[in-house]
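Lecture 7 notes: from sequence to structure.

We start with a single chain of 291 residues. Read the sequence below before looking at the structure.
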Amino acid sequence: MNAIPTAYATDWIEYALLDSGDGEKLENFAGYTIIRPDPRAIWKPQQSKTLWKQADARFIRTDSDHGEWNIKKQPPINWTITYHDMHFVLHPTDFKHVGIFPEQAVNWSWMQSIISPNSTILNLFGYTGAATVAACKAGAHVTHVDSSKPSITWAHENCEKNDIDIKQTRWIAEDAVKFVIRETNRGNTYDGIILDPPRFGRGAKGEVWKLADDLPYLLSNLKNILSKKPSFILLNVYTADLSSLALYNCMHSVFSSLEGTLTFGELTTKEKNTDRLLPQGSFVRWQAKKN
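Now the structure, written as tokens:
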């Protein structure tokens, strides 16, 4: 049996996974070290306890969705991180996130290798806009959709940090499924689609999103808003409930008629001083057939 492909970035300078284990990961974001829960890290750490004790902050869960930071040293003022020519604003949140998912760097690079200048891209569940910045840097016009207004504000800040032309972005605070249906009715289409749906979520007006139930329906509607010559579709999912093969099968059932290549695998992060990979989610990519 062939192994499921794994993808990880090898060119981060300002981010590193220092160690992982016992349900946590130790990371360095632009010189600031943090410890965060990670349920996939079921093994034992390989680095010294001293290294872990030196962390600047540690996130402690208070329930399944939230938590609080035990901060020994305050994050830098105007805390930012750089990847290639992109700059991202960081903040600790009570959801354990800091505003960026470093393992996504391989997806940013993949998109940028495909995107043509002036193409239209839809970024669903856009969060703080790292993928929006990456697409805009490649010359695209991006419609960024997220039900959270604070996340959209953060994404705005990231675009401003990268001097993205305001004409390149359109910001929509709305439930993703409802937006896609409305775009279908309007006749709007996109050359590329990015979607990074959560396992569970609520829309701007309380709409409930359940990944396993709602993803097939969303994908079937996305097919209606693809342009005549689409270039890519990128699906990324963090939950361990669904395998990358299950997600591939779901994508294939909807988009198999499109001429192109469908690939899938696991997004991972490689520890700095070992060969161990920390699984960080599953991806499925469709890329148009090259002429």
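The domain at 7-85 is CATH 2.60.40.1180 (Immunoglobulin-like). Keep this in mind for problem set 3.
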